[in-house]
Amino acid sequence: MSLNTITLQAQNGDPVLLPHEALLFRQVNVECTVTQGNGYPGATTFAATSKQGVLYVTGQRVIYICRPGTTHFASLSVPFAHLKDGYFEQPWFSSNRYHYLVVPANEGGLPGPCQVQWTFNEGGGFDFTHTLTNILERIHEGHANPATVEPLPPYPGGPLDSAGETGASHGQESSASPNPIQAPVDTDAPPPSYEEATRKV
């Protein structure tokens, strides 16, 4: 997690993304609070708050841009590997929130692990949670690029496995001779008499 390290685009104020980084989610009017400590007076060693900003989710990290920013708190960048113990909160009488613990990066501007809370004043909390959860699950499954999921390989021996296809499907004819066509048997006819049975033998 890094504080105040994001470069903004001049034309729209959105963050400048890294090479091969794709934008997956964007939500305006999100409040952000960053604190370190147990929340009691005198026990908090670091605190930063932005009442309004834009929250982004890319294929590599979560980004928050304060609108407007200050020299103390202008932006926040959190790679997915630095997110810990996130959970979504839906209060009865206030806006939805998302909380998590972040581990700071080296020279990231934070003194230590911090609690981050986002408050979604104009909606978007469900979409954010769904997007972030989906990406973290893909990372847990071992995909190198969490924004892309490759199709599963065919099941060995299954109907899509080329090694399990028959020779006829590859244009090869079967060497076994076909079974002769037999006349249907009338199951309702009475059994043959003793003379008819001995005559056929």
Automatic annotation (TrEMBL):
Q: Name one GO molecular function term.
A: transcription coactivator activity
Q: Which CDD domains match?
A: PH-GRAM_WBP2
The source's superkingdom equals: Eukaryota
Query: What's this protein's name?
Result: GRAM domain-containing protein
What organism does this protein naturally occur in? Dispira parvispora
Q: Where is this region: Disordered?
A: 145-201
Provide the Gene Ontology terms for cellular component.
nucleus
Matching InterPro entries: WBP2-like (IPR044852)
Composition skew (Polar residues), residue ranges: 169-180
